[in-house]
Specification:
The chain has about 60 residues and is mostly helical. It has one helix at about 15-65.
């Protein structure tokens, strides 16, 4: 039975692979940030609308009783 061992410090990840992975993660982070910048104001507005309706219904129920 033959077994193959790697010498200490041997890696299969090249500098080009590290650079490509780093660039990919940086690109994804940039895209996520830009999407959050676009979507966040709309999401806050919609959430505020639902909260306002819920509080209004609760207020008018309390006034009616």
């Amino acid at each position: 039975m033959t077994s193959t061992y790697l010498a200490a410090g041997v890696t299969f990840i090249t500098e080009a692979m590290k650079t490509a992975l780093s660039d990919a993660f940086t690109g994804v982070a940039t895209d996520v940030t830009s999407m959050a910048t676009i979507a966040l104001p709309a999401a806050v507005g919609i959430a505020g609308l639902f909260i306002a309706v819920k509080l209004s219904v609760k207020f008018f129920k309390n006034v009616a009783n």
